[in-house]
Each structure stands twice: as structure tokens, then as C-alpha cells.
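User: For a benchmark we're assembling, each entry needs the component sequences followed by a predicted structure for the full assembly. Here are entry 17's components. Please fill in the structure.
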Amino acid sequence: SSSSASMDELRAKFMEFPYVSAPHKDLMLELLSSVDNRIGSSLQPCTLPTDVQHFGNPTGTASASLHLRSGVVSSQIDFILGGWIHCKLPSGSSLNITSLSAYLKSSTNAPHFLMELIQSSPNSLILILDLTPRKDLILYLDYLKTYYEDTQLDKHRQRLHTLPEVTPYFSPSLYIRSVLSPTAVIVNIDIGAGEKTNIEEIIRDDIGPVAKEVLQFWLDSCACSERSVVGESEKCYLAERDRIIKSKTIEVDLGSSFPRLFGQEVADRVLSVLKEYYNA
Amino acid sequence: SSSSASMDELRAKFMEFPYVSAPHKDLMLELLSSVDNRIGSSLQPCTLPTDVQHFGNPTGTASASLHLRSGVVSSQIDFILGGWIHCKLPSGSSLNITSLSAYLKSSTNAPHFLMELIQSSPNSLILILDLTPRKDLILYLDYLKTYYEDTQLDKHRQRLHTLPEVTPYFSPSLYIRSVLSPTAVIVNIDIGAGEKTNIEEIIRDDIGPVAKEVLQFWLDSCACSERSVVGESEKCYLAERDRIIKSKTIEVDLGSSFPRLFGQEVADRVLSVLKEYYNA
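Assistant: Structure for entry 17:
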């Protein structure tokens, strides 16, 4: 049908990552392919309306593609959202964001997955890569042990921090700082501080391997884990905490930038659809 | 009596901070004097046994003073612990730690106070300064707003991070990273990276003002706050979370280093007394 052709076109447009460098695009495609290989059969096709899968601002300086796939009923995956955002800046350079995030259902307590690459100049890049905790790590020290200590997740952060180009990044949002795990990679990468001569090299040699390893761990040990069958009261706890995480994340992450990037009308349309999924 | 004379001597020994630089000692004395001025009347005298107030290792290379004052029954203060630790290192230099921490009762939900200065070489220093959250900041976003966002606590961290000598410090303990607030100052200060020529200068000009301001805020708005009278279920929540914080903090912070510094026998004696207060 013409409708499914249009869906294929939209998926192709999403997979194009048209505004980022070749290593950046390759990384995103490799991550999406890992998702597909490992849990593709547990995911529905993207069900977003076509004008939410791809959209731009009225003046044509900003555009974006979103691809959201919900988990099938029997899976532990709530949904996976991939996307890219492009915006020409008044300075002449561009803002390019690519992201991949995944939320699990309250039938498991395993961490969510979060990755975001934010490039606002040719020589610098912000990377956020984390398995977001579902439980208060103080009240549930066993959770900290199981998912973060025993798994040695911190090694990925440590590896990136050996690069002279890498410095810690502090999100201006205290909520974002609070929601991340103690092993979160949240760094600024600045060319000029080290030996590598461009961001593409760092994406290929350093960010890529780390992102792929963290995602693979999440796919194997979180998205497909059998171990964390949770009881009713834990389920309620997870559902309530996830409800807050999702609504606050969409507010802080997209709610604040989308109106600025795409105008109020487009932002309202896209956000109202995403909120249905985030508050489901 | 001879016993109270001995108590005075032990207090004097604690207040001596004999192994740190003049600005470092001055800062500690100023902080202790702020505590005394603002909440001294709510605190009992130190009730630690004399051999826990001051002790050393058998070979005489390590010594320490601890000064712990419990809050009177009517106050919201559980206890305040000040201390210094000195240890000669095989390298020839010394390890010097000074600290001030304060825990509140579950009749208030206001944050605890934590400050630690760790100097293991003449040219570098680790500073930990925080108001430790009592509640999960995700499940209780209003708590994050009240104590961390509306108070602009992050400005202190930001101020220190403008110094070229300052870089973020990552505790090897994921528990320590998790227990701190998103506005925690947890930094490494290294001479050689900037314009200041010694650590003393940075303590006097930069760390001092920030530490005094954060402590004053804690004294005025947390230790003496009337606003946070909590209900029974919140009280239980706070009590349980505090119980975990205290027992884990003593395990990670002191339990791992004391046997190494002072030998097992002294460490056991001191820790068993402290545990009574920490688990109270």
C-alpha cells in the first residue's frame, strides 16, 4: 500500500542520519542493527504518525526524524526511541543530536538505556551514555551491586576518561544529574586538548567501541534478562518511579528545546504524541 | 576532676590540627566555631571514651583525634563528628585528613552535612563538600527543588570549578558517588595546573569561603529549620535510609582504611564505639 511505502521511506530517512559525519552515522547504524539482531523480534514496527516520524520548522532551518518501536506484549521492553535532530545555528555551524533510548516495563527492574550525542560545533561533542537505574541506589544497595559494581560498568567511563580530549560534563539540569547512574559517561570531548585531530576519529576509535559494548550488555543482561521477575509491590514502585522519569525526561530534554528549534505548533504536535508513549 | 581535665586536654588536642598547614587549621577552627555559635547549645559535650578521642598506631607513625557531639533531645541534630587523621607514608610525605560531618534526626528531612579534606601530597588535595540528600531525588522531585534547585547550591561547585587547579574527582566507591547530591563538590586540586603556587593559598582564598558558606546554609536552613516536620511514614522512610547511609558510610569511609592505618586492634576499638553512634 502507499501507506506502508511511506513508512518505509520514513524509516529510510531516519536511517540516513543525513547531517552527521560518516563515523557518527556508522555508529548509529551499528547500534540500531545490534538492537534489531538481538531484540528485533520483540519489537513492533514504528507506530508514530508520519508527521512525527519526520518534521521540520516552518523556515526549513531545522529538521528531525524519530523512530519509536514498542515492545510486543510478551517482551520486557516498553519502547525504544531512536532519533536525529539537525538545526542550523545563527553562528553558521549546526547543532546535530543523535540519540537512542530504551525503556523497560515494570515486569523487570533492570536499568533503562540512554545514549545521546550532541554536537554543536565541529570540534566538540557531548556524550551521554548510561544505564539508568530504576531504583534508589541507597535504599537498594543490592541493586547498585548487581547492575553497577559486579558488572564493572565503570570501566567504560574510565576508558574514555583516559583520553586528554575528554572532560566531565555537568548537565545544567540537576534532575538529569540525579537520574543518571554513578557509572554514567557524561563527557565533553574537545579537539585541541589531545592528539586526535578530529571528532570523527574519536567517535570511531573510542566512543564507538564503548557505546557498542554498553548497548550489548544492556541487550543481553537487561532487555532479555530472565532474572528480575519482580513482585507486586516492587512493580508498583518501579511503575511510579518510571512514570516520573519519563515525564520529567521528556519535559527537560525535549520540552525545553523543541519549541525553540521547531516552533510551538510543530513542538506541540510531536510532544503530545511522544507523551502518550512516555506516560503509557 | 581529673577526668574532666583530661576531656579538656583531649578537646584541645583535637582543636590543634597539629599536622596541617595554618590556613587548613584556621578553616577547620572557623567551621567548628560556626557550629558552636549557631547550634552549640543544642549539642552535648563529646561523650566518646578517651581512647577513641585520641589514638595512634603501635609504631607511632599514625595518629588521630575524633570529637563527637550528640544533639540534645529537643534538637533535630543526631550528632556532629569532627576529626583529623595523620599518617606518615612510606614515600616520606604524609596523609592528612580533616573532616566534619553532621547527621540529623528523622524528625526533619533536611540534608546531612559532609566535608572532608584529604591531602596525601604537598601539591594536591581532595575536597568533598556536600549536603547529603535524605530522600531519593527522583521519587521526590520536590525535595530536589526545595534543597538543591531553589537554593542554588550548585553555585558553590561552579565557583570552585572555575579554578584551573580544580578537576572533578571520582570516588572509587560507587556507593559514595551515589550518596552525594547532584551539587556535591567532589574535586581534586592540583598545584601546577594554574596560577596559585600552593595548596594553602587555595584553601584560604577558595575552599574556605565556599565551605563556610555551605556550612552556614546548612546551620541556618537545615539544622535549625522549623519547616520540615515530617509525618510518621516519612519518618520511617528517613530512619531506614539514614540507617543504610550511616552503616555503609562507616564501612566504606573508615572501615576500609582504619585497620590499615592503625592496626586491627585499635581500628576495632574505635569502630565499635563509632558504630554505636552511627547505628543509633
